[in-house]
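[step 3/7] inverse_fold.run input=structure_tokens len=198
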């Protein structure tokens, strides 16, 4: 999960030149109303290392969202159903319940389903009707986070495919413009040095 953590969550200062850049990139990439202004701003913060790591990060994020198979669901949910099913629940009833549960749980990654079924909360389940709800309670935040990670990585990939990736924050400007910018932001001493050397 190394690439996904560095690319989709953007918390690594090794891939972003400054901590401010990491925070800015994270804020931009997680923007709910992602648009061209966000893409332009993201391109300013993208380093060559981020751009090079994006393909692997996308693959990894997609792999983390691979849904559980029917065999996985039987392996993890089957034993719980066998324990909590009332004696009046026939094999046909259990099969019908299981089919409905599969439809309700479709899309959940296998490792999250396994972890949910092994959780303390699942051990407290007393009725079949509680299994699906408890599973969603357990996996919901992690599954949502993985979806956001993939979406953020896709947003950044789309942004970096556009012209202008890894451009400097301030495009080429004249020495006079650089001095004015430095003075405007309270760095007059540096601007004075530039004036003397320029």
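[step 3/7] decode complete -> sequence:
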């Amino acid at each position: 999960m190394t690439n996904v953590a560095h690319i989709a969550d953007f918390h690594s200062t090794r891939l972003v030149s400054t901590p401010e850049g990491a925070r800015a990139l994270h804020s931009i990439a997680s923007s709910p109303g992602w648009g061209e202004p966000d893409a332009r701003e993201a391109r300013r913060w993208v380093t060559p290392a981020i751009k090079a790591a994006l393909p692997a990060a996308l693959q990894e994020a997609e792999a983390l969202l691979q849904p559980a198979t029917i065999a996985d669901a039987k392996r993890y949910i089957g034993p719980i159903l066998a324990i909590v099913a009332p004696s009046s629940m026939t094999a046909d009833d259990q099969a019908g319940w299981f089919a409905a549960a599969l439809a309700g749980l479709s899309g959940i990654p296998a490792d999250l389903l396994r972890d949910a079924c092994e959780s303390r909360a699942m051990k407290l389940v007393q009725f079949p009707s509680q299994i699906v709800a408890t599973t969603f309670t357990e996996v919901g935040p992690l599954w949502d986070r993985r979806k956001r990670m993939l979406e953020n990585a896709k947003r950044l990939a789309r942004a970096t495919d556009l012209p202008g990736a890894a451009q400097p924050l301030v495009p080429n400007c004249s020495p006079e413009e650089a001095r004015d910018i430095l003075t405007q932001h309270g760095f007059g001493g540096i601007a004075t040095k530039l004036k003397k050397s320029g």
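[step 4/7] annotate
Confidence is low (pLDDT under 50) at residues 1-16, 162-171.
The chain has three domains: 2-66+146-161, 70-144, 170-198.
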